[in-house]
Specification:
globular; seven-stranded mixed β-sheet; 12 helices; 10 strands; about 290 residues; three-stranded antiparallel β-sheet; alpha/beta; Rossmann fold
Length: about 290
């Protein structure tokens, strides 16, 4: 029996094609726009496919839906606890008190589950362009609500996301400026996490792994200066930021917590070399909490 679409989700949805809020939810197998006539299929668990045709035709979509979960069958689920703790620290230190959290590029849903349980009383929505990713998330975290959508055309009303998470997302996106513009429209606060891979180790790894793009799907490579410039150029005000030091050659250790050997060694190397030299040699993780208005 088909599941109906969550009523709370219905109240914040719009048509991503024409931006109309006049959607018809009468049928369980589809959502239709009463203004432009677009029809969006709904699966048996109530997941609506809002991905537009132009997003499905791109190289990124083809790669991400067919290959990513095959290359990463656990969707890096072991990294969720330390990422979740970082998100929680940002939320608590800035007194956000979100009621609606949108996790864009939610993957396994583990980070969203961790944060929503710790914050409490929030409506948590996982968003991903990949249906296989969402099926994995639903099987592991059925208590969350999910939407299939690209990030450049989000099916949400303006300003509904008290907090939008974009963790390990922007390095995969074809048009970063368009994605941030759309996120800014729906979010009040945005927390991003990106790898800073514009460094010597990142360059060497990409040279040694000719299938880099097919394996990881990264099409954008940032350093701290460039990602700051992109955020500020998108009219986002950086309220708080943090760097996490973990060289890739130690990445096998980073599955436990920020107190693990990899993070500890990374911080010590940064102190010895200096943060600027470290950033030129090794990748870092960059977190930034941004005001959108």
């Amino acid at each position: 029996m088909k599941m109906s679409i969550d009523s709370r989700l219905q109240s914040i949805l719009i048509c991503p094609y024409c931006s109309s809020g006049s959607l018809n939810f009468d049928r369980r197998d589809r959502v239709s726009c009463l203004d432009c006539g677009r029809v969006y299929p709904v699966d048996e668990d109530g997941i609506v496919d809002f991905v537009l045709a132009e997003e499905k035709s791109g190289e990124f979509f083809s790669y991400y839906t067919r290959e990513y979960i095959r290359q990463h069958p656990r969707l890096d689920i072991a990294d969720a606890p330390w990422k979740g703790r970082e998100v929680l620290d940002f939320v608590r230190e800035t007194d956000l008190n979100p009621e609606i959290i949108l996790d864009l590029g939610c993957g396994s849903g583990e980070v969203l589950k961790f944060v929503s349980q710790k914050v409490g009383g929030v409506f948590a929505v996982g968003v991903d362009i990949s249906y296989p990713n969402l099926r994995f998330a639903l099987e592991n975290n059925p208590q969350l609500v999910y939407v299939q959508s690209g990030v450049e055309h989000l099916p949400f009303k303006d300003g509904v996301g008290d907090l939008c998470l974009a963790l390990d997302l922007l390095e995969h996106v074809g048009d970063v400026s368009a994605a941030l513009s759309e996120i800014r429209r729906v979010a009040r606060w945005l927390l991003i996490k990106v790898p800073l891979e514009d460094c010597l180790e990142g360059w060497l790894v990409r040279k040694m792994l000719p299938n880099w793009k097919d394996r990881f799907g990264h099409v954008n490579f940032f350093n701290q200066k460039s990602i700051r410039g992109i955020l500020q150029g998108s009219s986002l005000e950086i309220a708080k930021e943090k760097l996490v030091y973990t060289p890739w050659f130690l990445s096998g250790f980073n599955q436990a917590s920020l107190r693990s050997k990899a993070f500890l060694i990374g911080r010590r190397m940064a102190r010895i070399l200096g943060k600027q030299i470290y950033g030129r040699l090794f990748p870092l993780w960059y977190f930034a909490l941004c005001r959108t208005g």
